[in-house]
Design brief:
alpha+beta, 11 helices, 10 strands, flat
Length: about 475
């Protein structure tokens, strides 16, 4: 009953704000009534409807549309302060105004809802990744269950315990952690607010957390039962399953969102500027989420051993040039200096994958170089390989962190703030691709300048190369 009253109160407040928006539009328009063409004043109310739709939803926006037409008739058509009007053409004006405001309001409300849904999906994906990363650092079942109870409890404003007695009530959600028909543990989650119940989306998210936790617990059990060699193999398999499941679960909603956003872009000319800005912002966030899922899929492919290389003959300079062109929008005022030491032979590589390596390293350098900084690229040849070095003039790498940077999900700053804006997959992908080519990759601080970091990879000159 209390929940129902809360919903009614919330809706009443929303409709109240819709009325207030119309009142504000009227106050803005009254001083202009004798100075601007009457038909032009309708845009004030149309803007108000857009604001109501983006902030309050479709219901209040429709109410604002109807109220706007009535208010416009009452205050801005002669005779003033009457619902009558002298010019019969206002029938058409009022009809167009009402239909336009309802259509624009509906589209804006849908857009606002889609933006909010996208932001929520991104937040959920980030929390899932953070949860999985936190579990991967733990070594025992007890630590994982304690961490999961605290993390899920904080995320859902709930009490999460390992026994039902700690979360009694009819609105308690039971999460059974089961692997291969073996129950590993159970968690019981109950909202702190006794009058609140979990929504369907919250229940599904609980189950996703439980699935990730089950995978981690399975990994721990495998570690306790197998030898050191078998433990390492099982851990890697479980991490691959986690990457694959997360990325594949996100592909379907991303495909739907892509179609929806593309359709909305077709109507951008009829949307107000605020709506176009919101749609553009949504598209940027969507591209970021797509890049994240793409990295997950690529990492799962690399670590599973199923990466297939399409060998072709290239000059390494050609690949570097393509990567620089790809990163051009992110360079801003930064400069890239290229140096080729000697004559570099053709190499047989998967051009697209090596280009991805160079792009990832450039992206890393851009993130840690000042806006007016300089990034240096050197290309050279040894007796057995071609090597590429990329240097930035940033804060460098904390001593002892040079190897850890290439591990999956490694995003901690370690004093250098390196990779803090990413997902911890870019350098790990570089390592996987280079190793698949039989080469090596390393990171170090610049010894000559004493400033910034240097990343270098090699491609062997052998039977697969020219």
């Amino acid at each position: 009953m209390n929940i129902s009253n809360t919903i009614v109160k919330k809706r009443a407040i929303q409709f109240g704000f819709a009325i207030l928006i119309v009142v504000v539009c009227t106050i803005i328009g009254l001083p202009l009534r004798e100075k601007i063409a009457t038909i032009s004043l309708t845009m004030i109310y149309l803007t108000g409807v857009v604001i109501a739709a983006s902030r309050l939803g479709i219901g209040p926006s429709i109410a604002a549309s109807i109220l706007s037409v009535l208010t416009f008739n009452f205050y801005f058509t002669k005779p003033y302060h009457s619902f009558e009007f002298y010019d019969d053409s206002y029938y058409f004006t009022f009809g167009v105004m009402l239909v336009t405001s309802i259509i624009v309001g509906s589209m804006t409300a849908r857009l606002a809802k889609l933006v909010e849904s996208s932001r929520q999906s991104e937040t959920e994906a980030r929390h899932l990744l953070e949860f999985a990363k936190g579990l991967s650092a733990l070594k025992t079942k007890e630590e994982m269950l304690k961490y999961a109870s605290e993390y899920i409890g904080n995320g859902f404003a709930a009490i999460v315990t390992q026994n039902r007695n700690g979360a009694k009530g009819t609105n308690t959600l039971e999460l059974i952690l089961q692997s291969n028909r073996t129950v590993l543990a159970s968690l019981f989650s109950k909202p702190i607010d006794p009058n609140r119940t979990f929504s369907k989306s919250e229940i599904m998210l609980h189950q996703t957390y439980a699935s990730i936790l089950t995978g981690s617990l399975t990994r721990i059990l495998a570690t306790d039962e197998a030898s050191n060699h078998k433990i390492e193999i099982e851990n890697e398999r479980l991490r691959n399953i986690l990457l694959s499941s997360l990325s594949h679960d996100l592909r379907t909603p991303l495909t739907i969102m892509n179609g929806t956003i593309s359709n909305l872009f077709k109507y951008r000319k009829s949307l107000p500027r605020e709506g176009v800005n919101e749609l553009t912002s949504l598209w940027r966030q969507f591209e970021r989420l797509q890049k994240f899922v793409s990295n997950l899929l690529r990492m799962a492919l690399i670590t599973s051993g199923n990466l297939k290389l399409n060998y072709e003959a290239y000059t390494i300079q050609e690949i570097i040039g393509a990567a620089i062109q790809k990163m051009q929008p992110s360079l801003s005022k930064r400069k890239i200096l290229n140096t080729v030491l000697g004559k570099i032979p053709l190499v047989k590589v998967d051009g697209a994958l090596i280009e991805q390596v160079v792009a990832n390293l450039l992206d890393n350098a851009i993130n840690h170089t000042t806006e007016n900084g300089v990034i240096k690229i050197e290309v050279g040849q040894s007796e057995t390989s071609v090597w590429v070095a990329i240097e930035d003039d940033g804060p460098g790498i904390t001593k002892g962190h040079e190897t850890l940077m290439f591990e999956k999900f490694e995003t901690s700053n370690h004093g250098s703030d390196r990779q803090t804006s990413g997902t911890g997959l870019g350098l790990a992908i570089c390592k996987g691709i280079i190793q698949a080519h039989g080469g090596s990759i390393s990171a170090s601080n610049n010894t000559q300048s004493g400033k910034g970091a240097k990343f270098q990879f090699t491609i062997p000159i052998g039977k697969n190369n020219l």
